[in-house]
# Entry
Amino acid sequence: MTQKPPLTLYLAAPRGFCAGVDRAIKIVEMALQKWGAPVYVRHEIVHNKFVVDGLRDKGAVFVEELDDCPDDRPVIFSAHGVPKAVPAEAARREMIYVDATCPLVSKVHIEAERHHENGLQIVMIGHAGHPETIGTMGQLPQGEVLLVETEADVATLDVRDPAQLAFVTQTTLSVDDTKGIVAALQARFPAIVGPHKEDICYATTNRQEAVKAMSGKIDAMLVVGAPNSSNSRRLVEVAARNGCGYAQLVQRAGDIDWRALEGIRAIGITAGASAPEVLVDEVIAALSDRYDVTQELVETAQENVEFKVPRVLRVPA
# Structure
């Protein structure tokens, strides 16, 4: 029997589920308990196939639009948030609906509305087409929210009045990239108003900090998460930018590119905010099959945030 090569495995903390994801999953489970199956969910409740498949097995039906839902069954809106028109249409159809929007995303929606009421046009820093960006921009009338994705976009921004602007951001962005875009906005529009408190959420920031803390110690980084998960993809970028030679996003252990890991002596593992710990365990087990693994925890913060589920789920049917 050949001896396994030694491998030091640095495990990021915090990693995986955040309070908003926890709450969203709980909302679907509690809705199924309260109303029975099927319960409809508009869009993936969170960006993770394993989680979505598990809820589907319990009786959740995932659809793209409200038009795909019958009037007589409950519908849940995803953690990423929805444009205002969606709950308005659900109310018009007299549907039972539960909003699983993360409270930290709702905070950004409220900010944008407050700025709009004060006569300001909004600049949103975010990714085009991402459900959270669509949801935030959909809180206000067309043209009231302008999207920028990069520093270069700031230079071509066509605003109504440079003295009447505010900015908000998607909650799952790269902290470092966003700083650059904010600086470019402030340089071009000195009067622009920013959020009272950082829009990028605590979980995104904490997971990026843990990756930065381990990037200099490792030869490779595996980020457990889905390809459509913004915060997971940012973790791969943060690792690469901070000196990690190889960084890969994996949904499951079966996605690991073993050839790319040949000759490594130290590896980092983290997970995006919508990836369950069971998938991290699966990746660690796969590494342990091939290597003589020594584990070390890299903890940069402790999280004890918890969000309540909506009242409708806390009262009997």
Notes: The CA atoms of residues 54 and 145 lie 36 Å apart. The mean pLDDT is 96.
